[in-house]
Write a structure and sequence with these properties.
Blueprint (H helix, E strand, L loop, with lengths): L10 E5 L9 H18 L3 E6 L19 H12 L4 E4 L10 H6 L2 E3 L3 E5 L2 E6 L9 H11 L1 H8 L3 H13 L2 H7 L13 H11 L6 E4 L6 E4 L5 E4 L8 E5 L4 E5 L6
Parallel strand pairs: 1-2, 2-3, 3-4, 6-7, 7-9
Antiparallel strand pairs: 1-10, 5-6, 8-9, 10-11
Helix pairs in contact: 1-2
């Protein structure tokens, strides 16, 4: 996807994995306020903003109902898009059931699959990252189940109070929620063993021409050189890392939000 030429001094921002809603209302609200503060900071020179998935830990849109809460974030995103700054959302494994509401109500551009963007003279391969690369066959099967239109239709027959309560209950019991409660960071293997590293390297070896891969999902901030001068950036999360990436037209930098509570 080719984007318009940006004005001098503008930047492109990427962030991912906020998982709003866990482990409880108060800590989620604190992170939401932090995210709104970051958006206030970057909107001053943003050409585009990419939210690379799992903004919410549970999100399901009924025909006339969406999960309550998150009004600070949704209002800020509406303010930004109303100013003409494009905001993109790549759906992740936790907000896979985002459909039309965010696009129609606040003009966020939804992306459900990996996409290639040409911006400021560079080529970006963008994806949330779930289900990519070798292995993880159990999750890949579940993703097909969750993406099935008939299964989504059946879930809509649950009363919203029941459906949302079920989703938030299982979110609260998740590994990520427990990590936040215990103030722990994810214990991951070396970057060369990461499925996203293998996935990106395989695409390059098969002839893909890209300057940057940008992923979320894995929660470990990483900036790695691949082959042919290409780099892979994994954005980390806003559970324990509070990281994002900034592209100024010359280089893509992984940064830590200074107002984080750590």
């Amino acid at each position: 996807m080719e984007t318009e030429q940006n004005k001098p001094g503008q930047k492109i921002y990427f962030a991912s994995d906020f998982h709003l809603g866990i482990p409880d209302h108060e800590s989620s609200l604190q992170r939401e306020r932090m995210l709104v503060s970051w958006l206030d900071q970057v909107k001053k020179d943003a050409a585009e903003i990419f939210l690379m998935g799992d903004v919410f830990d549970f999100w399901f849109e009924y025909k006339t109902v969406v999960p309550k809460g998150y009004v600070r974030l949704l209002g800020k995103l509406a303010e930004i898009t109303d100013k003409g700054i494009p905001v993109h959302l790549f759906t992740g494994n936790h907000d896979i059931w985002a459909f039309e509401y965010l696009q129609k109500e606040i003009n966020v551009q939804l992306h459900r699959h990996p996409e290639i963007f040409r911006m400021m003279g560079k080529t970006f391969y963008l994806a949330h990252g779930d289900g990519l690369g070798p292995g993880d066959n159990g999750y890949k099967f579940l993703k097909k189940v969750f993406s099935n239109r008939f299964n989504q239709f059946l879930f809509r027959w649950l009363h919203p109070d029941i459906g949302a309560k079920m989703g938030l209950y299982f979110s609260g019991k998740s590994r990520l929620a427990n990590m936040i409660k215990d103030d722990k960071k994810e214990n991951l293997n070396s970057i060369e063993d990461e499925m996203l590293y293998k996935y990106a390297s395989g695409l390059l070896k098969n002839g893909l021409d890209a300057d940057y891969f940008v992923f979320g999902h894995r929660h470990r901030p990483a900036d790695v050189e691949l082959i042919n001068g290409c780099r892979m950036v994994i954005l980390g999360d806003w559970l324990t890392n509070f990281t994002y990436a900034e592209f100024d037209g010359n280089s893509l930098k992984l940064k830590y939000f200074k107002n984080n509570p750590l």
